[in-house]
Amino acid sequence: MLKRFAAAAAVAGVLVAAPPASAATAESGWGRYLPGNCLPGTFCGWPNWDHPPEGPTATPSLVTTTDWSGSVTVFNFYNYTSRNVDIDWYLPGTSYAGTVCATPGDADLYVPMTVTRVVFHTRNCR
């Protein structure tokens, strides 16, 4: 379990350090994953690993174009918007929680987290 959290923390650290992009692209900020069935202008999250070469094809557990709050499992996400987004999460069964700031085109997490809030903004990710 700690290895999974360490991986998530490392991912979060890299996301926080990534420079902001000016517009969403059809390729992840990491250059590895495509948006799959996430439509332009939306933020999408999927509950399970689903990354064929064209990107996720499963039904997303979260799709939003505006600020959102609730509770949903997200294994990976894609920010297909032109805005930065803060994603509040916690790791079920632990005290680990945090916020990831994703720039346009970012796609990550890759550990099943519970996402509780998505907030769009134009300020830089730190």
From TrEMBL:
UniProt keyword Signal present: yes
Keywords attached to this entry: Signal
Signal peptide annotation: 1-23
The protein's name in its UniProt record: Peptidase inhibitor family I36
Source organism phylogeny: Bacteria, Bacillati, Actinomycetota, Actinomycetes, Micromonosporales
